[in-house]
Amino acid sequence: MRSPPPVAPPPPVGAPAxxxxxxxxxxxxxxxxxxxxxxFVGVLWVVGGLKETPQQPVKAPGNEIDQGRFSVTVRxxxxxMQKGALDIKIQRYVIVRMHVVSHDKESASxxxxxxxxxVAARTKTGKWVPPDDIExxxxxxxxxxxxxxxxxxxxxxxxxxxxxxPKEFTVGLRQWEWxxxxxxxxxxxxxxxxxDALAGKLTLRLAAS
Length: 209
Hints:
CATH architecture of the domain at 64-208: Sandwich
Protein name: DUF4352 domain-containing protein
Number of helices: 1
Keywords: Membrane, Transmembrane, Transmembrane helix
Radius of gyration: 30 Å
Transmembrane segments: 27-47
């Protein structure tokens, strides 16, 4: 046989009877929470959700930026007409001049797997794209690689369309990390071209040659 539920004790003699709460008062908190949640969702939709904004510290030209594998000092940018290494005829390029020192213990390439992988320019849509080519000189002579501790003067090159006439050019320098890959367990210098986090971002005024 089930015992009856406990009954609350009566209020003390002379105590005022409790006022019944109005029905609308019970819904103030839920409605407020719903409004706050709706505003929160709206803000997330505008800013792109909960994804953390990648770190892109703004730097000024002329200051050294440590990428880990390289130290790079971006000098300036300009529009030129010249023939690249694989060009048949003269093309229109944006070039960015850089002073580069390698911290690698071995020779580093200027192209894929080397300096090129750590340099990018931002398009109108916000996408970061690597240079079409990088040329460099060391001690006044043309070079295809960067030797440890030997500074080079490098020029990163991006092809332009005939109608392109930007006044500014945004360049990003990616961070290099020493470690292993997902499938490659050998230690090496690595940078992720899909990661928008940067060692430094520079917006350069474009000068005509």
